[in-house]
Amino acid sequence: LVHLIRKRSIDVVHAHSRAASWVSWFATRLTRTAFISTVHGRQHIHASSKSFNIYGRTIIAVSTALRDHLIRDLGIPPPHIEVIPNCISFEQWDEARTAAVNALPVPPAEERDLLLFVGRLTGPKGDIVRLLLQQVLPLILKKQRVRFRAIGGMITPNDIPPMVSSLNEASGQPVAELRGFQNDVAAEILRATVVIGSGRVVPESLTLRRSLLAFGESNYVGPITPGTFVEAAATNFGDTGVRSPTDVKKVADDLIQLLEHPQT
């Protein structure tokens, strides 16, 4: 990195992970280059993380909960942190909505409502999909005719496809599927009755006028409405809050409510 900074005459280095910040901190000190770091998630707390701040003096946190975590748990001075939530281009998503609406066929009236999970299948987000497949969807299928689809990510853990097969077998028909990475996310969202996600998936789905259930890496938030948006955004819609157990019945009940009264 030192060689690249000097060769390209780089003025500012912007790091987006702990590993990148570690390397960048030393490289920018050696080259006297400006350094900015963006923190996207909660950090592991141990002696070295408390005693040595690798994020520098100019830090962006993507949520207020994350800012409070950096101050409280890592001892970073508040003046060094600026909160800048995930942003999206509304114009881009409005255009995507118009294009997708014109291209999508009208679904048959008897087609099941679609629950769409948007996010990778690895790490904590994979645990959300496991919980949905094994505990939440069986409760919903007793009361609603629904389909479940998960998109996003390049890697599928070996244990998740058998969960899909097991749910389909128990239902006597295909009600769940994994589609992996998709280029046209807007079209996928527009096919859904309810979207399940966190982070930037929330404003993207709301821009496309779809009902949204926020369920992130750290905690379950629930349906996003004008009344819940600000509080939900404080944890980046469930990605950066304090970890807490999930009430499976509440998740199922919230999804059934959204299915019965979808936003359009």
Please give a handful of descriptors for the protein shown.
4-stranded parallel beta sheet; 6-stranded mixed beta sheet; 2 domains; 11 helices; Rossmann fold; 264 residues; alpha/beta; elongated
Give the topology.
Layout: H1 2-8, E1 12-15, H2 18-31, E2 34-39, H3 47-51, E3 59-61, H4 64-74, E4 81-83, H5 90-103, E5 113-118, H6 123-141, E6 146-151, H7 160-171, E7 176-180, H8 185-191, E8 194-197, H9 201-207, E9 211-215, E10 220-223, H10 229-233, H11 248-260
Parallel strand pairs: 1-2, 2-3, 3-4, 5-6, 5-8, 6-7, 8-9
Antiparallel strand pairs: 9-10
Helix pairs in contact: 6-7, 6-11
Notes on the structure:
This protein is α/β, with parallel strands linked by helices. The chain has 2 domains: 2-83, Rossmann fold; 90-260, Rossmann fold, CATH 3.40.50. The protein has 11 helices and 10 strands. It has helices spanning 2-8, 18-31, 47-51, 64-74, 90-103, 123-141, 160-171, 185-191, 201-207, 229-233, 248-260, and strands spanning 12-15, 34-39, 59-61, 81-83, 113-118, 146-151, 176-180, 194-197, 211-215, 220-223. Strands 7-6-5-8-9-10 form a 6-stranded mixed beta sheet, sandwiched between helices. Strands 1-2-3-4 form a 4-stranded parallel beta sheet. Helix 6 runs parallel beside helix 7 and helix 6 packs across helix 11. The mean pLDDT is 91.
